[in-house]
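Hey, can you fold this?
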Amino acid sequence: MSRVSVCFYFQVHQPFRLRQDYNFFCIGHDHRYEDDENNRNILRKVAQKCYLPANRVMLELVRRHEGRFRISYSISGVCLEQFELYAPEVLDSFRELAATGCVEFINETYYHSLSFLFSKAEFKRQVLAHKQKLKDLFGVTPKTFRNTELIYNNDLASAVEAMGYELILTEGADQVLGWRSPNFLYQPEPTTKLKLLMKNYRLSDDIAFRFSNRGWDGWPLTAEKFASWVFQVAGNGEVINLFMDYETFGEHQWEDTGIFEFLRHMPGKVLEHPDFSFKTPVEVARSYAPVAKISVPYFISWADIERDTTAWLGNPLQDGAIELAYSLERPVLKSKDVGLIHTWRKMLTSDHFYYMCTKWFSDGDVHKYFNPYKTPYDAFVIYCNALNDLKETLKARGIAC
């Protein structure tokens, strides 16, 4: 067995964005909240720039290296729905990848939500719905779990172990790791069987964020240079977890930066070293023993410089909006209206609260990406208008809110 494994995990997600013109006067009579045209245009644009060309390169790499190149994806349920609606050819390309046997599909909350923080029952429902969607579309039963935006703590680990998963992913946050390295397999403190993989954010972000930055001392990042950095882990780690948004390829880093050429050549350069291989997350979990237990009593994530939940929660807009959203859980479920329940759940998608973030001073540009709103306040007002219409719909049916 090779001594060091490289583990690629990609997040694939697009939310259903709301209409910009959904104002106060729409409440009570206009129940169309989503901007279908904008959602279609964004999904088609990203499909052409990222999903389709990146999937072609990934398939080419798997075939060229005869299965030695291996990768994993977590594709949110709301993104899978948009592929079905607007870009079925993307789903076909993921099915083609799945058929190689070199790709692992990872379970998450169907609606890419913060449900674990607000409703454990809703969290479990969404995880099971996503699990079923993966089985329906790709014929797989996932063994690895990752929560929305790698949000994680000890309680989540316990819940995920109880649901029967082998492995969970999270951020290799410095405040948690301290002197320890993310380049090993760990075990969550409260669990007995579950394994834990933590992102190597330095090497991941070299690709995801710094690749095209000409002011970065690592620019230009070539396949040979990156492989040499990977090889430095030999003797100081067993697994290098490269976790990133899939939109890195072609969307965050445009094609003219050379990102696809880098992707085409980097795996081959890594595989030139006999002690290095590629593994999917569950293969890593089954190949190594945890070196230690790690306790994470508070929530961490992979977002922003803080690596916590303040991208989605903490200011009055976010907290008020999410409190209103989850206050509707019981009445919405009581309606037994499948369409209404689905509409409400799409409103739980974390992006809605991300758009309300006011931390412009530290990560503003990131929060503006694909953000349909001019200000966080617009995001709050439109979101609450839609939720209040949903509330009025329930009341009209005699369901108390």
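Oh, and this one too while you're at it.
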Amino acid sequence: MRPIRPTPAARRGRSTRRRVSPLLAVASVTAALALTVTACGPEDDGASATPSATAGAASDGKIQIPDSVRDQLKAHGIDPDKWKNGEWKNWDRDKWLREAKDFVNPIIAGLWDSDRMRGADKTPEKPVADQDISGDAGVTDPEPAPVEAQAVDAPYSENAAQSGKLFFDSPEGSMVCSATVVEDPAHPGKSNLVWTAGHCVHAGAKGGWYRNLAFVPAYNNTALPTAQLNTAPKETIAPDGVWWADWAQTSQQWISGGGPTGGDGAPYDYAVLHVTPEKGSTGKSLEETVGSALPVNFNAPATAKIDSLTATGYPAAPPFDGQKAFQCSDKPGRLSLLASAPTMYRVGCTMTGGSSGGGWVAAGADGKPALVSNTSIGPVTTGWLAGPRLGDVAKGVYDGVSKKFADK
């Protein structure tokens, strides 16, 4: 089994196939579960949140790097002008690891055009074999029966308004995840916060922050067939625009223990982004633009108290192509990777890679929908998905981002 991980994609004007992440064994007392992360890294509630600084774009569409970010780039031997002209494509692995805490994400207007977004949905090349987890040291319920993913009714802006796709670049190429617009307690009704998986923003223990993170709410809003997307204008593919991350936080557990197949960081595989529109401020927040945002429930209920969870995402591995949104609804069970780590939720679902980071929604105490998890890992045979329970560590990540922008 493996977690769903971000997949390599085409650079502009040239397509490449998405790759599956390498297999990583997660030890237990008598058995191991090989997992592959879906796409992002979480922040530790008990640990200090690790941020990423970013920049904005000028009204003329050209990249504009604030002096503080420009100085930071220079301090690490990066020429800001060269960066916007393609220097970001150069991934010195030693430097990437060493400077993981100094990630910067200046807006490069037009980088995520229609072709590049569509090309970022290639499928994995090499599936990873499933392995038995019956001897897991923690509490693991029987594997759920597969639940067939259902297409979200179009337009997505009416039926899954908070959901969208997250695009970013890695040393392996362009990648994709799914993400969700969530409420910001510091700005009621005007949130610019996005929830996703930790492995969608940071590579974990053996890597650093990804680059060019951008969120597209209601991607392919009218569910156009893939063939028609070849000629569709950007306004159709990204009806609510492209929103660049100007800050990102994930758990220290993910940063120190996460890996390409999940690793010890999987139970903490979540992240929060603060975003800003690529074309400059229009006076409207992301929440106002899409029309809604989900509250986040950090008092994660036990599985027995949840009748149904609904996971939403943009699966990209076969039989999906990453261009449309899907959902699965199921009563969750428990999955324990390590006895010392929090137990994860698990649901039956046939969604594949690319759905990582997508929100899991359940009815709250008030009966209204709330985000309670996100897609993190899943088996190669696409029968189920697992996501972290949200507690104090997750709340620390969320509060850290909200407070940082409370006065802005």
